[in-house]
Specification:
alpha+beta, Rossmann fold, 4-stranded antiparallel sheet, 11 helices, 15% helix, single chain
């Protein structure tokens, strides 16, 4: 079972409904009825595979239209079956997981800690009706990613079920697993059901939470895993199984035989990009043992093999999202080594089904045997892809800072993107954010190189020092080095490409970046390469303008405190790597874009950069999205974003038109 998303650009509405694919017959069909503005997620099977439970916002009175609240729904797998509501809780729910025996479901809801769903709904409604709109805080976070903290927290609930001929009903009221805790599970802003796990016999439940009780939440990265005995009518108090580690522990997963809990763990407090290890908790002894200490890679996700002998894990390595087999002795071997795989599901014979994407194709569902033989299962996008010009990405390596080999991608402009099919094209130089991230071989709806190749640009993307997937030392090398090795890598690599790819016109270069990539755009505008400003124009999306003030107005203080090696007091690093202090040297035209709900890098940075540009008389524009956060997520806004960016770079790279 899987969800499929479609979008209607003419009306700016979308739909996400459920589909099923029959592994034996190789047939697929839509399971839940289509309807615009319907949103469905988290499909999970009944124990006999006769029905599915899922989250849906359908209207119980008219299932083809959205309702007022997301609830738990169910549908039997048969001909012409229609979805039926399972829950009618007084507030929306999300993040659904079914237990292994079918005795429970787990779900999340934003409640007032210490209050039931009904009580929380009443309190929240009263707040909304008050004439005074003011919020008082006595600790951090006051806001996070794209939302203000108004007192509601995401708590995980367990609901008992009973089954009759493939149809289930709820038994009693759901139980809040977190009680009075002023904390979130799943953790915000990106946690999901991968942070939960039921034991095979449903006697235990494990979940991840962050320590939010004090303001230290803003400068520590400590996540812990808790287990709770759920056999009794009243669940026992949750027990922390990772309390000795003050860094992040997350994604608990019970082994199929119930003897172990595997989880992901970092050993460096306050560093979100520290190496991620696999650790094993022994259920009988309570001991914790690291499994991947000798593997210089970070594990992104894991799923147990059916015989409890090991795992399939995903890692980012050399700009690919690979699948590895990992056994309990710590031995590993690659299973899928190209493109980007995620959302793994394992069969009893250890075949694996997963989501698979690349720069050439958006996500489709694939199956791999235990020996790595791949089969594509879904083909929804092939007709549309056949109507588009796409450019095949080419990998290359060059010698960057410190004599290290640096990985990069280059794409030629797509065929027929410019009239006359010239032999050379301007280059769009994309700089990734993070900064501890990577230009992976995946399909992005925010920074997709095909959008620039299709617009008549050769595209270059470099995984500079600080990027992930090349060993932890390479990632760590950007600490207190924002404008050092990365700046050298970017310019040296671009010189290398221009000298080795004849289809690139080196006289027409534009650069674009977001987040840290936006920081680098602001840095580039104040720093020449080989005595000259090399770019015709720049694009900065949600980038840091003032590194020192960034510490004061961001929410996750651990980012600057780690990367700048401390707080700003008596710390010269913040000014050493501060683009604002070099704005008097800016000369290059620049487009500045910012989201009004970006609380990671607040909009004052975009406004500050635009003010500096205007005050110096530099050609510039400022685009403001009042309802977007650090990313542009609304489809219509994304279309506008791309149109505006392409128009800006065309103006300088194609002054005579195409």
């Amino acid at each position: 079972a899987f969800s499929r998303y479609v979008y209607n650009p003419s009306t700016n509405v979308s739909s996400t409904t459920l589909w099923i694919y029959d592994i034996e017959s190789k047939e697929q069909r839509q399971l839940t009825p289509f309807g615009w503005s319907i949103s469905e997620s988290n499909p999970c099977w009944s124990t006999d595979s006769s029905s599915l439970l899922f989250i849906s916002n359908r209207n119980p009175q008219n299932i083809y239209w959205p309702g007022e609240s997301s609830q738990v729904w169910q549908i039997q797998i048969g001909d012409n079956e229609l979805p039926q509501p399972l829950s009618s809780y007084p507030m929306p729910v999300n993040d659904l997981m079914c237990s292994n025996t079918g005795a429970y479901i787990a779900f999340a809801a934003n409640i007032i800690p210490g209050h039931s769903l009904s009580e929380s709904a009443t309190i929240i409604a009263q707040k909304e009706s008050e004439t005074v709109r003011a919020f008082t805080f006595d600790k951090l976070f006051i806001r996070h990613w794209g939302e203000w903290y108004h007192g509601e927290r995401s708590h995980v609930f367990l609901q008992s079920l009973q089954w009759n001929s493939g149809v289930c009903s709820t038994v009693g009221e759901p139980t809040d697993m977190m009680g009075n805790l002023d904390a979130d599970a799943p953790t915000k802003p990106f946690g999901g059901i991968e942070e939960w796990s039921f034991s095979p016999d449903d006697s235990q439940f494990a979940f991840t939470r962050r320590y939010d009780e004090t303001s230290e939440v803003a400068w520590t990265t400590n996540l812990d895993i808790f287990t709770v005995d759920i056999q009794n009518a009243i669940p026992q108090q949750p027990i922390c199984i990772t309390q000795e580690n003050e860094a992040a522990d997350t994604q608990p997963s019970y082994s199929p035989d119930g003897s172990k809990i595997a989880f992901l763990s970092q050993n460096v407090p306050g560093y979100e990009s520290a190496r991620v290890l696999v650790k094993i908790f022994d259920v009988s002894t309570g001991s914790v043992q690291p499994l991947t200490t000798d593997w210089d890679r970070s594990v992104d996700s894991l799923v147990w093999l059916s015989d409890s002998s090991g795992f399939y894990v995903t890692i980012t390595e050399h700009a690919m999202g690979k699948i590895y087999h990992l056994d309990l002795a710590g031995n590993y071997s690659v299973l899928v080594d190209q493109h980007t795989a995620s959302s793994l599901n394992v069969f009893t014979n250890n075949d694996v089904v997963f989501s698979y994407e690349s720069m050439m194709e958006p996500a489709a569902i694939y199956r791999s045997t235990a020996t790595g033989e791949l089969t594509k299962l879904t083909t929804f996008n092939e007709d549309m892809l056949n109507k588009t010009y796409r450019s095949t990405p080419v990998e290359f390596w060059f010698e960057g800072a410190n004599g290290d080999q640096v990985h990069s991608w280059v794409l030629n402009a797509a065929q027929d993107s410019v009239s006359g099919n010239p032999t050379q094209y301007p280059v769009a130089f994309l700089i990734h954010g993070g900064p501890q991230s990577s230009w992976s071989d995946d399909w992005s709806y925010r920074w997709n190189p095909q959008t620039y190749a299709g617009n008549g640009f050769a595209v270059v993307m470099i995984d500079f020092h600080g990027s992930t997937g090349y060993g932890q030392n390479f990632t760590d090398s950007i600490t207190n080095n924002y404008g050092g090795s990365p700046f050298y890598d970017l310019n040296t690599g671009l010189d290398f490409i221009i000298g080795n790819f004849s289809f690139i016109d080196g006289s027409r270069q534009v650069a674009l970046g977001a987040s840290y990539g936006g920081w680098m755009i602001n840095w580039i505008n104040g720093h020449q390469w080989k005595g000259q400003d090399r770019f015709l124009c720049l694009v900065c999306h949600d980038g840091i303008f003032d590194e020192q003030f960034f510490w004061f107005d961001t929410e996750e203080l651990w980012f600057p405190e780690h990367d700048m090696e401390g707080t700003p007091e008596n710390n010269p690093n913040y000014n050493t790597w501060n683009p604002a202090l070099f704005s008097d040297l800016w000369n290059t035209p620049q487009l500045v874009i910012h989201g009004g709900r970006d609380y990671r890098i607040p909009d004052s940075h975009g406004i500050g950069a635009f003010t500096a540009l205007q005050r110096r008389g530099i050609e510039s524009k400022f685009v403001f999205f009042p309802t977007e956060n650090h990313w542009v997520m609304t489809p219509s806004n994304s279309v506008y974003w791309h149109a505006t960016v392409n128009e800006w770079i065309d103006q300088f790279a194609y002054p005579q038109g195409k």
